[in-house]
Amino acid sequence: MTQAVKKAVFPVAGYGTRFLPVTKAYPKEMLPIIDKPLIQFAAEEAISAGCTELIFVTSHAKKAIEDHFDRNIALEQHLLQRHEFGLVKTINDITPANVTCVYIRQPQQLGLGNAVACARNLIKDEPFAVILADDLIRSNNGCCLADMVAHYQQTGHSVLAVEQVAKEDVSNYGVVEYEDTAKGYIKNIVEKPEVENAPSNYAAVGRYVLSPKVFEFLDQQVEIESGKEQQLTDALAKLLATDKIFAMELNGLRYDCGKKTGYLKAIIDCAMQEPAYREVILSAMENTPCT
């Protein structure tokens, strides 16, 4: 019987250099979409998919993430005195009572594979999800990760979320080569290929549900390439020699919030879903045309 996916890993130790200077002292994962930080969207997706242990792979500069998911008794008391009961509920409902948050340090930022490997002792021999908060996903099915978890439960094999990207952008991603497109079987996955060498334009994007077998190949990277970046894509390519991996194409919208343009688009699109914000945006666009 396939084990349930109850653990989700959030690699959040990166420097966020594309958003300097704000990320000099502030985690990029805490950048808000109006009033909710990116990392909370990611956590909510994991919880909706049935995960009850959230594992944050952090650095010394990411204490704000820990504080966000912790209680703030002084703030609660202040709000209660003001009879702001709705706001008390808002901050206390960030994580349900049955969800545990765990924090582990990544000593050096040595790639996504290294960040995932840091969580090995917490994952043990269980399947797990990996969520990159930079990728904000609005799924037409309600929850991208929930669909991937359901697929894992049916097959017992790792699942990657993929999206077709512009050909000139393939060198920014891990790119999959299909063995059987209809069934979603992956034949190969290549980390940031040159445009002319890319096996396709299907890129792995920000969501993974992985078998614990992947740790065997991450361990090999540590032994062979100590001190160098460990790429999760490279470990998955080796896993393919012994196990199936499926690709699941996104059904919805992905915002690359690691880029300023993607982040701005995410804010605007989310705001446009709220009538009050929509009016503000449309009014601003009428009065201040873009040049």
Would you give an account of this structure?
The chain is an alpha/beta fold. The protein has two domains: 7-258, Spore Coat Polysaccharide Biosynthesis Protein SpsA, Chain A, CATH 3.90.550; 259-291, no CATH class. Helix content is 35%, strand content 24%. It contains eleven helices and 13 strands. It has helices spanning 38-48, 63-68, 73-81, 85-92, 112-118, 120-123, 144-155, 214-224, 232-239, 260-272, 275-287, and strands at 7-11, 32-33, 36-37, 53-58, 100-105, 128-131, 135-139, 158-164, 174-180, 185-191, 202-210, 245-249, 252-256. A seven-stranded mixed beta sheet has the order 5-4-1-6-11-8-12, with helices on both faces. The protein is globular. 38% of the residues are buried. The model has no long low-confidence stretch (mean pLDDT 91).
Essential attributes:
single chain; 291 residues; alpha/beta; 11 helices; Spore Coat Polysaccharide Biosynthesis Protein SpsA, Chain A; two-stranded antiparallel ribbon; 2 domains
> What's the average pLDDT?
91
Which structural class do you get from the secondary structure elements? alpha/beta
Number of strands: 13
Q: Using the 3D structure, state the CATH architecture of the largest domain.
A: Alpha-Beta Complex
First-last Cα distance: 59 Å
- Give me the side-by-side strand order of the main sheet: 5-4-1-6-11-8-12
Query: Helix-strand pattern, N to C?
Result: EEEHEHHHEHHEEHEEEEHHEEHH
- Overall number of structural domains: 2
> How much is the radius of gyration in Å?
20 Å
- Low-confidence segments, given as residue ranges, are none
How many DSSP helices? 11
Task: Report the biggest beta sheet as strand number plus sense, adding barrel if it closes.
Answer: 7 strands, mixed
CATH topology assignment of the largest domain: Spore Coat Polysaccharide Biosynthesis Protein SpsA, Chain A
Specify the helix fraction band.
Answer: 25-40%
> How much of the sequence is in beta strands?
15-25%
What is the assigned CATH homologous superfamily of the largest domain? Spore Coat Polysaccharide Biosynthesis Protein SpsA, Chain A
